[in-house]
Amino acid sequence: MSTFWNLSHHKELKAVVLTDHNGMTYGELQQRVDDFKAMLPSSTNKQLGLLLCSNDTATLVAYLACLQAGHAVMLVDGQLEQTLLEKIVYSYKPNWIASPYTEHTFEGYHQSSSVLWVEERSSYPALPGIHTDLAVLLSTSGTTGSAKFVRLSYRNLQANALSIASYLQLDETERGITTLPFQYSYGLSVINSHLLVGGTLIMTNASIVSKEFWILFKEQEATSLAGVPYTYQMLQRLRFGSMQLPSLRYFTQAGGRLAPNLVQAFRQISVETGRRFYVMYGQTEATARMSYVPPEQLVDKADSVGIAIPNGTFWIDEETSELIYEGSNVMLGYAEAREDLTRGDELQGRLHTGDVAYRDEDGYIYIKGRIKRFIKLFGLRINLDEIEKQIETEFSLPVACTGDDDYLIIFTENETNAEQIRVYIRQLYKLHPTSFSVRTVPVLPRLDNGKMNYMKLKDMMS
């Protein structure tokens, strides 16, 4: 099978649908890609482009143009705050920047197009080279503007797209709607896997809680829905199970642990409506996906992250219980500055996930928590992820835990349950009341990918 960025084998099929017109075929999309490649600064050397992303055709065109031209591209939130963007630009010195948001300007760059503009950096004449295998750089930290990025190769992208298309049983009749940011590995994997099979992308920035989103979903007959845990919390409030969505075939969840009661609730919806529900597990460091739970196994494996994706393998370190993954989708390594882009494959297909896990008798993996998400209170080792899991299961509401070796703080949005949570945790873990507290906040802070912003929670401790 050809690479997903080679569009020629799907020439007559519909590639993209937008809210304001009928979209374009793969052949028409390729013409747009060719036009963009012609705009890029001429150079015989591999270049680094910075793409400020949105769920639109302009972003898709620029992304595919970079892959086809053999350049490396950084994918960053197009609405990231200017000073954070400047930090990334300073650290990586991209050869050019493309953005649908024309309000951005950067010192040392000049504008060369009024629609999707490209600006070439001329003030760094002797930049370090870029490794031949490097294709995409994805941030590890959502909207915080950290300069730490994951280095992904062409092989990583293609391997993960192939695996996902295989276990989700994708074909050219798929019509996937964008529910996640383009620059988020989960959202990008939806795009890549649909392009691979010749499916159609329904591109929108509309939120799933908006009327606009569901009108588009129904009009364009979307066949799938992808979401993080927060997405499914919102879908439950929207009474997803009673929605009339005749075109929907399956829905997927990743990006963090979904409470078992919600897994079973959405599994029941899938059974009653004749659809498939996939619970999945992955990390940006593995391009996107590492495992999934076959829909028919969810009834007994609601708290599992499942089995390895096709062509992937898990094993567990006997001493530390850390989950280790092996596969062609494992990143080349990390980068924090332009100089790091000269490096090749440092991991050789093996990823230490940082997750503590065990495997049941059927070979299904269960995550107990993050290695770094442990604190000690009076000598007692406390797993913060486990506490969140216990509370979510008991009270069916989202919480977030943070702390240090002196104090545990549990954050919740529900003031009514705060005292009940306090009593429950004290009894469950036999904690002294002076060693922890339950605090109510209007909204739990989240990153743009829907995951909890623990860095911000840490700042809220004082």
Automatic annotation (TrEMBL):
SUPFAM superfamilies: Acetyl-CoA synthetase-like. GO terms for biological process: fatty acid metabolic process. It comes from Paenibacillus oryzisoli. One of its GO terms (molecular function) is medium-chain fatty acid-CoA ligase activity. This is AMP-dependent synthetase/ligase domain-containing protein. Residues 9-334 form the AMP-dependent synthetase/ligase domain. It comes from the Bacteria. It holds the Pfam family AMP-binding.
